[in-house]
Inverse folding.
């Protein structure tokens, strides 16, 4: 049986976890590697942290997930990727994006789609010039245009589109229509939970950031017109200075209908069997890899069970015949 590699993206503030200790534990719990979020106000530097993990653990892959090209020059990011790959050939994961949360925290404007397209092309061209033996190189995308741009320019996409079967299928189809050989990885926010209260707690650190994706592309995510403003209000209340902690959602109010919709579209919770069942329709889409969101509350405590559930759900039916 063959299943895609599964990584954990570690996105906790410096004061919350030691990244090397967390990475060692994650590998013991069954992930194939770890990514590191880029946000200079919150998290350790991703390339340096990944280097320590690759040197000290058996992780198959590690690297930035994601590195914001709105904050870091594309040539510098490409050089860092190549330098790390020279030391750890084939083991470097590099995921790039605009980097909205980092830019918000620095008080800087978010690049337009047109500007981002230029940045991503410059990154890819410089990386091709350096020609390192990397691992996966992906651009993160949540809406149709960004998915298309990343598929075409980078050659791979980390699809940050939630857990709805319909939307994930739509996203994979969009990427491969833009470039048939595009690698498609899924960014999943999920954790095994025992009850509704645990499910709500799991969502607390990330509810607003999920809501922002729904609010930016409501038709793509099939959001009813009467709920768009309510979802947008949850997004607006997210405190990116505290991203990855429950305090990020402290000002989001109590619109339970909007909260429930966001959780349903973006989070995988419930028993291991329930999570596997939700993923099973995606098993034969040709998913190339999975990154689990480390900001989901409870993921580190229940990582082994969650990884097993995701593996069971994405095990290709073709492989089991």
């Amino acid at each position: 049986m063959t299943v895609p590699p599964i990584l954990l993206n570690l996105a906790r503030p410096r004061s919350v976890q030691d990244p090397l200790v967390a990475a060692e534990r994650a590998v013991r719990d069954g992930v194939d590697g770890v990514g590191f979020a880029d946000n200079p106000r919150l998290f350790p530097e991703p390339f340096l942290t990944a280097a320590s993990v690759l040197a000290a653990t058996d992780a198959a892959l590690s690297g930035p997930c994601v590195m914001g090209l709105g904050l870091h020059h594309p040539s510098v990011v490409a050089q860092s990727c190549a330098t790390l790959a020279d030391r750890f050939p084939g083991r470097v994961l590099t995921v790039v994006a605009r980097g909205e949360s980092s830019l918000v925290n620095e008080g800087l404007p978010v690049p337009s789609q047109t500007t981002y397209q230029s940045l991503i092309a410059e990154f890819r061209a410089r990386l091709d010039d350096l020609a390192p033996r990397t691992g996966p190189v992906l651009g993160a995308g949540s809406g149709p245009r960004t998915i298309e741009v990343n598929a075409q320019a980078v050659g791979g996409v980390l699809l940050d589109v939630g857990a709805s079967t319909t939307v994930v299928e739509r996203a994979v189809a969009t990427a491969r229509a833009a470039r048939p050989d595009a690698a498609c990885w899924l960014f999943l926010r999920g954790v095994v939970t025992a009850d509704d209260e645990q499910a709500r707690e799991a969502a607390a650190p990330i509810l607003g950031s999920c809501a922002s994706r729904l609010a930016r592309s409501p038709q793509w995510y099939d959001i009813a017109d009467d709920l768009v403003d309510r979802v947008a209000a949850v997004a607006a209340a997210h405190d990116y200075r505290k991203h990855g902690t429950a305090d990020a959602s402290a000002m989001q109010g109590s619109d339970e209908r909007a909260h429930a919709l966001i959780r349903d579209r973006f989070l995988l919770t419930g028993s291991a069997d329930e999570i596997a069942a939700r993923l099973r329709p995606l098993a034969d889409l040709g998913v190339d890899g999975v990154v689990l969101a480390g900001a989901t509350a409870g993921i580190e405590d229940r990582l082994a069970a969650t990884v097993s559930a995701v593996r069971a759900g994405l095990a290709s039916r073709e492989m089991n015949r």
